[in-house]
Amino acid sequence: MDRKKDGRSHVARWLFLPLAVFAWSGPAPAAEYPSRPLRLVVSFPPGGSADFQARIIGPKLTEQLQQQIVVDNRSGGGGVIALELVARSTADGYTLLLGPSSALAVNPNVFAKLPYDPVKDFAPISMTSRVTLAVVAAPSLPVSSMKGLIALAKASPGKITYGSTGIGGVAHLAGEMLKSMAGVDLIHVPYKGAGPQLVDIMSDNVAVGFASLTSAIPHMRAGRLKVLVVTSSKRSSAAPDVPTVSEAGLPGLEIATGWFGILAPAHTPKAVISRLNSDVVRAIQSPDLQKRFLAQGLDPATSTAEEFAALIRTERAKWAEVVKQTGIRLN
């Protein structure tokens, strides 16, 4: 035997061993996921239905995943800032998005250009809820119904302001639909979320607004805000005295409802998506979470990843027609 040659072969094996180990290393197996805290990005500031959901869902997922869920509010741009952030994040299951219908289904029809694609840049996990909008007003406004609001607006054309949770969102479109259906001239005032919008309405800086029923209910119960109507097809159990848009003679406004769901960046491993879907569905279907959602006018909802993806496509087509009717188009 050539001892010199044999020695060289041993040296070669030791030299290449680290390279082999490096080549074998890669993403942690799905069975080990998650091994560190997760971030749940929310596209609106505190005070609205999005943040409300995140603060309730987060602890449930923390318990089930055995890792901390950190809620990260990234408001602005009608959800664009948050969605762009998540779309560009590493697809490893550690950055998630609580995405609204406005950013996923409405924005693509309103904005000429977006820094994200709602279909190509995200991996849907599951729905979390369906949201009813409400038309709200400050107690000082001399109206107590939609009929009264429309009469006031017709008597003061171009003087009544209405707030929304962002340019091009569901609330904005609902306001423009109301203007068309009722033949009134309202001035739009956009906000970064329901929280700051409601503060201005209660301070008489804005006359009325379109916001989620969830964000309005605490103020309504405290007497700081009047809820004139809800956009759902039936009255909400959380606000049974508030009429629907159909009861108010505006059935076409029933289209102005929204939804939320949890998504990950595109190309997140399927095993991770499957694990997250199972945990999100279990969290949403838990009795205590459902009770808390319903008490705040929020309808809990779950889906498979495939069903959620189909919903985004269907809703995008639906809102394309509404955007065409209202004529809203932004660069």
Overview of the structural elements:
The chain has 331 residues and is an alpha/beta fold. It has two domains: 35-131 and 257-326, Bordetella uptake gene, domain 1 (D-Maltodextrin-Binding Protein, domain 2), CATH 3.40.190.150; 132-255, D-Maltodextrin-Binding Protein, domain 2 (3-Layer(aba) Sandwich). Helix content is 44%, strand content 19%. The chain has helices at residues 3-24, 49-65, 80-87, 101-110, 146-155, 170-182, 194-202, 213-221, 270-284, 287-295, 305-326, and strands spanning 38-42, 69-73, 95-100, 122-137, 160-164, 186-190, 208-212, 226-230, 257-265, 298-300. The radius of gyration is 24 Å and the shape is globular.
Strand content: 15-25%
How would you sum up the global shape? globular
Helix and strand run = HEHEHEHEHEHEHEHEEHHEH
Quickly give the structural class. Answer: alpha/beta
Residue stretches low in confidence (pLDDT < 50, at least 5 long) are: 3-28
CATH topology name of the largest domain, in short, is D-Maltodextrin-Binding Protein, domain 2
Number of domains: 2
Query: What is the C-alpha radius of gyration, as a whole number of Å?
Result: 24 Å
The tally of beta strands, per DSSP, is: 10
CATH architecture of the largest domain: 3-Layer(aba) Sandwich
Which CATH top level class of the largest domain fits? Alpha Beta
